[in-house]
């Protein structure tokens, strides 16, 4: 197995760092799947997929070399603490000139981060970090594959995340649960129930991509953990081109975020019973 890559573009380094930072706030254990074409960060809760983030390697890296476990199975699966990787990449905010990431073996497998920082002298400064990883054996790969996408009852564009975040920040102090509701007419609603009232915010004229509802008045909804939804809203830092909210009635909410054609993020929130 071999993995080595290099980033030199300032925007690519910023985007990569932001993605890792958001994942580090969600979990203390994540999986990184490496293939010749992309990197996939995966987060699971109780063996159910919560986050699946696909990054196209050609956008982020000027150099990308990987050889998997075999020619037939040209993949590598690594498990690690994303908090450690996020801290290691912190130096990229200091106008780094480049960063190299490679899979090494230093008493144990590591992702070694070599960051080149500018210097007043002729020689640049080097910042080195080792992030311990576990190489996941092939017998466990099936547990870390891409999640199955269900057939949704409705798929609708979400409003800008920064607007939603402002509203949900207030709502999460009222209730631990949030109901997302959408209709065929392009109305999207956020609702919380308290002992004394129901508080809701409605957004209108949103793009509806698909709907199984026959009547215009019919609505699809699911009630989810409001704190987990609020964590998703942190993805606003990557400035997505669009976010779709996909709902299976009273079962699951799937949030699909994309940045151009080089970042695609799936976020799954199961319905909770009130």
Question: Explain this structure to me?
Answer:
Its main location: nucleus. This protein has 274 residues and is of the alpha+beta class. It has 2 domains: 143 residues, Proliferating Cell Nuclear Antigen; 106 residues, Proliferating Cell Nuclear Antigen (Box). The chain has 5 helices and 19 strands. The strands form 3 sheets. It has a 10-stranded antiparallel sheet with strand order 10-6-2-3-4-19-18-17-11-15. A 5-stranded antiparallel sheet has the order 5-1-7-8-9. A 4-stranded antiparallel sheet has the order 14-13-12-16. Helix 1 runs antiparallel to helix 3. The longest helix is centred in the N-terminal third of the chain and has 17 residues. The radius of gyration is 21 Å and the shape is elongated. The model has no long low-confidence stretch (mean pLDDT 92).
Q: How would you summarize this macromolecular structure in one to three sentences?
A:
With 274 residues, the protein is α+β, with helices and mostly antiparallel strands. The protein is 17% helix and 45% strand.
Share of β-strand residues? 35-45%
Number of helices: 5
CATH topology title of the largest domain:
Proliferating Cell Nuclear Antigen
Category from helices, strands and their pairing: alpha+beta
Instruction: Please tell me the overall pLDDT.
Output: 92
Number of domains: 2
Can you count the beta strands? 19
CATH architecture of the largest domain: Box
What does the radius of gyration come to?
21 Å
Main sheet summary? 10 strands, antiparallel
- In N-to-C order, the SSE pattern is EHEEEHEEHEEEEEHEEEEEHEEE
| Poorly predicted segments | none
